[in-house]
């Protein structure tokens, strides 16, 4: 039997966070190891509880979700972070992804979808609410004019890794598939984001799908770059 996925939940609405914690526990395979109504508690909870996934609310005082995600990334925390919010604003989605969130979910999500999102995040996949997909695509529209020249700047290996990103695969999965180290994949991903002027793996995945990079997955070979 696999170990349960360990989750820390931070939301300033007591009723919501307690209800969500109980719901997740009842679904099985997920263990809520820490909850708080204050984003400032996140650092201590991450150090003490060693969770697999962190779920944070977007708008909460005194430290909002975007600022919290930014702080954690700047301090080197690599844990998958899911933003769970009532906001379907394009600006909030953009800010969350730029800050380093691995997923953006809406609070009207179905319980089974929530559990699935947590499982996917724990595997290193990116997760965005289906209702936000078109807004995510819209965020990339301003970058289309120069997309071909940007793609041409990628090495063959980088294009190959971009194909895997289009399928939402984690760095570990990509490393196994390409028989390269995890650190090498991380370095390539950083180069891909820099060359394409993107800010997150989610944007890279959407960019790849938009340009049909993912469709060429089976024909990708190339040499390490």
CATH class descriptor name of the largest domain: Alpha Beta
How many individual domains?
A: 2
Strand content: 5-15%
Strand order of the main beta sheet, please? 2-1-3-4-5-6
Radius of gyration computed on alpha carbons? 18 Å
What fraction, in percent, of the residue positions are helical? Answer: 40-55%
Indicate the CATH architecture of the largest domain.
3-Layer(aba) Sandwich
According to DSSP, the number of beta strands is: 6
Query: Termini, distance in Å?
Result: 39 Å
CATH third-level topology of the largest domain? Rossmann fold
Global structural class:
alpha/beta
Corresponding CATH superfamily of the largest domain: Response regulator
Mean of residue pLDDT?
86
Could you say which overall geometry the principal axes of the C-alpha atoms support?
Answer: globular
Largest sheet, in brief, is: 6 strands, parallel
Give the topology string: H per helix, E per strand. EHEHEHEHEHEHHHHHH
How many helices? The count is 11
Poorly predicted sequence stretches spanning 5 or more consecutive residues: 216-225
Task: Describe the protein in words.
- By secondary structure, the protein is α/β, with parallel strands linked by helices.
- The protein folds into 2 domains: 5-135, Rossmann fold; 142-219, Winged helix-like DNA-binding domain superfamily/Winged helix DNA-binding domain (Arc Repressor Mutant, subunit A), CATH 1.10.10.10.
- The protein has helices spanning 14-27, 42-49, 65-74, 90-99, 111-122, 133-141, 147-152, 156-166, 171-178, 182-195, 201-210; strands at residues 5-10, 30-36, 53-57, 81-85, 103-106, 127-128.
- The protein has a 6-stranded parallel beta sheet, with helices on both faces.
């Amino acid at each position: 039997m696999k170990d349960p996925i360990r989750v820390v939940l931070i939301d300033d609405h007591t009723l919501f966070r307690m209800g969500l914690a109980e719901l997740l526990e009842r679904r099985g395979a997920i263990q809520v190891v820490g909850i708080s109504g204050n984003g400032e508690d996140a650092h201590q909870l991450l150090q003490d509880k060693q969770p697999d996934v962190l779920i944070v609310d977007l708008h909460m005082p005194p430290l909002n979700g975007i600022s919290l995600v930014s702080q954690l990334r700047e301090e080197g925390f690599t844990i998958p972070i899911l933003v769970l919010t009532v906001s379907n604003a394009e600006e909030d989605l953009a800010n969350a992804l730029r800050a380093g969130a691995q997923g953006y979910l809406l609070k009207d999500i179905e319980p089974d979808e929530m559990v699935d999102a947590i499982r996917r995040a724990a595997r290193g996949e990116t997760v965005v609410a289906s209702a936000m997909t078109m807004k995510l695509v819209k965020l990339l529209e301003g970058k289309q004019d120069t997309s071909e020249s940007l793609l041409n700047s990628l090495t063959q290996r980088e294009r190959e890794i971009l194909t895997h990103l289009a399928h939402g695969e984690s760095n570990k999965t990509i490393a196994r598939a390409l028989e390269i180290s995890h650190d090498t994949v991380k370095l390539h991903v950083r180069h891909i984001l820099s060359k394409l002027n993107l800010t997150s793996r989610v944007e890279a995945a959407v960019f790849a799908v938009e340009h049909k990079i993912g469709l060429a997955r089976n024909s990708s070979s190339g040499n390490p770059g």
